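This week, work through this protein record:
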Amino acid sequence: MTLQDPKKTEQANKFIETTFRTTPFLDHYFFRRQGRDHIFLFSSECYDIPQWKKWLPRSILLAVEGYPLECSDGKESCRHSNTSFSGWKDIIIPSFTDKWSVENLIQRDLASDYKVKQLNEIARIQLACYHGTTDSLQNNEIRKNVLALYDKYPTGIGLSIGGLFAYPGDYYDRLALCHFCIIPKGLGYWTHRLFEVIFAGCIPVIISDEVVLPFGDFIDWSEIVIKWPTHQLPFLIDYLFDFYRKNPEKTENIRDQIRKARCWLNYHSEDPTCSPYRAIQLLLQRKKMAFPYYNRNWGPPEEILIQ
C-alpha cells in the first residue's frame, strides 16, 4: 500500500486519524496510558499504519522488520527509518511460514540428514544456492550481484544460482541439496527467505548489513548463521568453498544447531516450551517486569463520593 500508491497512503492516514480521534473507547482504553499497554503487529517491511510514529510512539510493536520502509511519493522515494525499533519495548518476530511449507521443508531436511548419518551417503551436492528475482525491487543491486556470482565460477564448484522455480516443491528439493543458502536483502533488510532455508536445514548466509533477527534471547544466531558484509560479496564463494572443504564436520554441527533452534521460528510447533508464541509471551513478561507502571487516573474511593 505505502509503496505503490501515495493516494492510498493518504487515505490510510485520514482513516487512522479519524479512528483515533472519534472512537469513544480509545479515550478510555488506549489513551489512558498513552498506548503503552497496547500491542500492534506489523508483518511486512512497511508498517501498515503510515503515521505510526505519531499514534504509536509508546505502544509495543511486534514486527518482522526492525527498520521499516517509509515512502513519501511512491516506491521511488522510499528509505529505511532509523528511529523505529526500540529494543526496550518492541519485539522482532519471524515471518509466518504456512504449515504445508514447513512440513515439506523439514521432511526434505530430515531425509537428507538420514542419508548422511545413517546411510553414510552424500546428500547435499551443491555448495551454495540462491534462486530469486530482482523484479519490482527497490535497491536490488545486491540481488543482481548475487546472481552474477554464477558466471564467475566453474560449474564444478557446486553453485545453484538463478531465477525462481515454477513450483514450490522443486524449490524445496533444491534447498535440500545445498550446504549454504545465500540470503540477500529484499525490499527491506528482512526477508522471508531466511526462515524457509532454516526449515530446509540449509545454513543461511545473510547479505543484509542492517537486518535485525528475531528472538536473540533464545537463538544464538552467531552459531547458526553466516552474516557476510555486503561490500565483501565478491569473496563470498571462495570463503564458503574453503570453509566446507576444511570443516565438513563443523558444517554438519551447524546444521544440527539449526534443527534444535528452528522450533522458535515455527508457528506450527507442537512443543509448548518452544514456539514463536512462547517466545513472545516470555519476552512480554520480561518487559512487563522491567516496565514502570503509570496511572494518572484515580480518585477517592467510590463509597465516600458525595451522592
User: Anything to note?
Assistant: The mean pLDDT is 85. DSSP finds eleven helices and ten strands in the chain.
